[in-house]
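Methods: holo model generation. Sequences were used as deposited, without trimming of termini or removal of tags, and paired with ligand SMILES retrieved from the corresponding compound records. Each pair was processed once, and we did not select among multiple samples. The sequence and pyridoxal-5'-phosphate SMILES for this entry were:
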Amino acid sequence: MIYLDNGATTKTAPEVVEAMLPYFTENFGNPGGIYSLGSAGKKAVNQARRTLAEMIGARPEEIYFTSGGTESDNWAIKAAAEGCAQKGRHIITTKIEHHAVLHTCMDLEKRGFEVTYLEVDGYGRVEPEALEKAIRPDTVLISVMAANNEIGTLEPIGEIGRLARERGILFHTDAVQALGQIPMNVEELCVDMLSASAHKLGGPKGVGMLYVRSGLKIPSFLHGGAQERGRRAGTENVPGIVGFGAAAARAMRIMKDKTVREIELRDYLIRRIEEEIPYCRLNGHRTDRLPGNVNISFSFVEGESVLIALDMKGICASSGSACTSGALDPSHVLLAIGLEQSEAQGALRFTLSEENTVEEIDTVVDCLKQSVARFREISPSYEEFQRTQSKGSL
Ligand SMILES: *Cc1c(COP(=O)(O)O)cnc(C)c1O
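and the model returned the structure below.
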């Protein structure tokens, strides 16, 4: 199997599984217990908290563990909106956010908040000048992702953070794709809240975190016990949190080598596709993108069909459409960067890890070449295109 869907989820690293196991077996105690069986779990959770704090340049007491990126995004946006509602009811975000952000904002719109969804440029970048223009006296929150999950585009969040800080507006960033891929420092970037998820960086699924700058008075998300300083109740997911900590430690250790390797493979994959398959276009920025992200549209084919053909050869990737209610909707991100519906539907995303090899990339390009050519042979739009082409040359 060749796995090129690390943007969807990553394999839990063996050392992470190792670190988690004792917290299912001998150290199963509730961290709330006063006996030593519980305190082992409590210690481990706090160790993980310190590791994650170190990773983003925060303090341990600013880290809150959650059930994942989706919960962190929901909490950050709802809590900030609710907490600031006295001051204003306007939120600024972008058209290319993950649905965990977009759908949360849409829900707030139903409850009396106003949301500006910023346009992005052809690479998927938010223009800080456009953001500045969108700021109103009643703007209370800006939420812009650190890196886009579909096209890998890196956003100028440091600039945006400084703008927000100058105006006294809260700044949240969804860093689920960025954490573990590129350095992130909440102080340098002027971030007030940051969402992350373990399973995107070699950790387990179902655990994430929200960084909340100390001093911010945002409402609790889950009410109940006193866990997470009373802000996120519920018995801690001890094995998951331990796994998140281990994954973060590993990510910090390998980041430099991983980045070099992935950029090399990424650019090799892009180059081979561009040289060997006609009528395709790279989506997102050529260099200002996540090290392991490749997103390419192939004209005259359905990305979904190519995916199935690749799957039959044991290759896992993803497409530029999401299956919602049985229909294939083109990606909101690809439409936002100006693609036609058909181009968006012909997009494929390959997201690499440090484990991929040149041989794997070669295999993928060979399969891709074959299946794209085969689907084009039976594509009416390709036939039509060729007819107009040959007419033009007469
Ligand atoms: C995966 C992802 C999420 C959701 O995280 P989960 O832990 O799966 O809930 C949110 N935002 C981005 C950018 C993501 O890539």
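The pocket of pyridoxal-5'-phosphate is lined by residues 68-70, 73, 98, 100, 145, 149, 174, 176-177, 197, 199-200, 208 (CB under 6 Å).
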